[in-house]
Write a structure and sequence with these properties.
It is a single chain. This protein is α/β, with parallel strands linked by helices and about 325 residues long. It has 2 domains: about 170 residues, 3-Layer(aba) Sandwich (Rossmann fold), CATH 3.40.50; about 140 residues, Rossmann fold. The chain is built from 13 helices and 11 strands. The strands form 2 sheets. Strands 8-7-9-6-5-10 form a 6-stranded mixed beta sheet, sandwiched between helices. Helix 6 runs parallel beside helix 7. The longest helix is centred in the C-terminal third of the chain and has 19 residues. The chain is globular and about 65 Å long. The protein starts with a helix and ends with a helix.
Length: about 325
C-alpha cells in the first residue's frame, strides 16, 4: 500500500487536533478545509476570525467545521506568556519579551501543544525552519533522554525491492550539519519512531559511512563506529548496525559478503547518514535519479508532533503533513 494512503487511513481511524498558526496563507486554508472534510483531523487556525473567513470566501474555500481562534483575544494569552517567561527567564527573557513573543501565532500554537490544548502543529509555509525549530525546542521541548532535534524524509521508491515495499526513512537530511556520535544516537532513535509511524514497520537501522566493518579508516568512520556502539548500549531492543556502506545496507548479496552475520545488512529500512552533506545529497539524488517521492523534511526529537514545511509547499503537501502529524500523535499516545 502507498504509505501516504496508509497514513491518511490511520489518521482517520483516530483523528487528533492540529493547529495551523499560519492562517493568513491561502494554502493553509485549503489544506484545513480538506483535512476537516475528509475527517483526518480537527483543525484550529490561529488568526482574526473575520479576516480569515473573508480570505477563505475570496479563495472559494469552505471552512465549515474548522475552528478559528483569535489568539490575541484569548483568555490564555497572558497565561501562556507567563509560562514562556518561566521557561526562558534563565536565558534572560523578560516578562515583556515573553508577552510580545506569545503574540506570534507560531509560538502561541507551540504553547497550545505543550499544554495539551491540542495534539500537534504544522507550520513553515510562512515561517523559516529555524523559527519552527526554535518554537519547538523552547516550548514543546524534547522527550526524556533526547537532546537533539533532527529531521527525516520518507522516501517512496517506484519499485518495491528496497526498504518496506520501496519505502525508507532517510535521516538526518535537514537540520544537524555535523552531528557528534551522541547526536547520531539521538537521530537514530528518533528515526526509529519515524519508521514506525510513517512506514508502519519495525525499524531496521543502518548507520552509514564510506566503510563497512572497518574496510576504511578515517575520523568520520570512527564517529559512526562509536555512535553504533553507543546506540546498541542505549537501545538494546533496536535492530541497528554499522558502520555500513549504502550498498551493504540495502542489497542482501553485498551485505552478506561485506558484513556477514549483520542483522541489518541487506535489510535496512532506516538509513542514518554521518552528516548533513551526505543526507541532503542522498535524498536529492534518490528523488531525481530513482524517481522517488521525498516526503519531508519532518521534524524528529520533539516531545509532541510539530512538523515543518517548505515555504514552497503546496496545499496537498500541507494536507499530507497534517495526516503525518496525526499519526505521529497516535504514536505518542501509545
Amino acid at each position: 500500500m502507498d504509505p501516504l494512503v496508509r497514513i491518511v487511513s490511520e489518521a482517520r481511524k483516530n483523528k487528533k487536533t492540529v493547529v495551523l498558526p499560519e492562517a493568513e496563507d491561502a494554502r493553509m486554508l485549503v489544506a484545513a478545509a480538506k483535512a476537516t472534510k475528509e475527517g483526518i483531523a480537527d483543525i484550529v487556525l490561529l488568526g482574526d476570525p473575520d479576516k480569515v473567513s473573508a480570505q477563505a470566501k475570496a479563495e472559494g474555500v469552505d471552512l465549515k467545521g474548522v475552528r478559528i481562534t483569535d489568539h490575541l483575544k484569548s483568555a490564555e494569552l497572558s497565561t501562556y506568556a507567563n509560562a514562556y517567561y518561566e521557561l526562558r527567564k534563565h536565558k534572560g527573557v523578560t516578562q515583556d519579551q515573553a508577552a510580545t513573543l506569545m503574540k506570534d501565532p507560531l509560538f502561541y500554537g507551540a504553547m497550545m501543544v505543550r499544554n495539551n490544548a491540542l495534539d500537534g502543529m504544522v507550520a513553515g509555509a510562512v515561517n523559516t525552519t529555524a523559527n519552527v525549530i526554535r518554537a519547538s525546542v523552547q516550548i514543546v521541548g524534547m522527550p526524556k533522554g533526547m537532546k537533539t532535534v533532527s529531521s527525516c524524509f520518507l522516501m517512496v521508491l517506484p519499485t518495491p525491492e528496497f526498504g518496506v515495499d520501496g519505502s525508507l526513512i532517510y535521516s538526518d537530511c535537514g537540520v544537524v550539519p555535523d552531528p557528534t556520535a551522541e547526536q547520531l544516537v539521538d537521530i537514530a532513535a528518533a528515526a526509529a519512531q519515524s519508521c514506525r509511524a510513517l512506514i508502519g514497520a519495525e525499524p531496521v537501522i543502518a548507520m552509514l559511512a564510506f566503510s563497512t566493518y572497518g574496510s576504511a579508516s578515517h575520523p568520520i568512520v570512527d564517529k559512526v563506529i562509536q555512535a553504533t556502539k553507543l546506540a546498541k548500549e542505549k537501545y538494546p531492543n533496536l535492530q541497528i548496525d554499522g558502520e555500513l556502506q549504502a550498498d551493504s545496507a540495502l542489497i542482501p548479496s553485498i551485505g552478506s559478503k561485506k558484513a556477514p552475520g549483520s542483522p541489518v545488512a541487506g535489510k535496512a529500512n532506516t538509513l542514518i547518514f554521518p552528516d548533513l552533506n551526505a543526507g541532503n545529497i542522498a535524498y536529492k539524488l534518490t528523488e531525481r535519479l530513482a524517481k522517488a517521492t521525498a516526503i519531508g523534511p519532518l521534524l524528529q526529537g520533539v516531545a509532541k508532533p510539530v512538523n515543518d514545511l517548505s515555504r514552497g509547499c503546496s496545499a496537498e503537501d500541507i494536507y499530507n503533513t497534517i495526516a503525518i502529524t496525526v499519526v505521529e500523535s497516535q504514536m505518542v499516545e501509545k
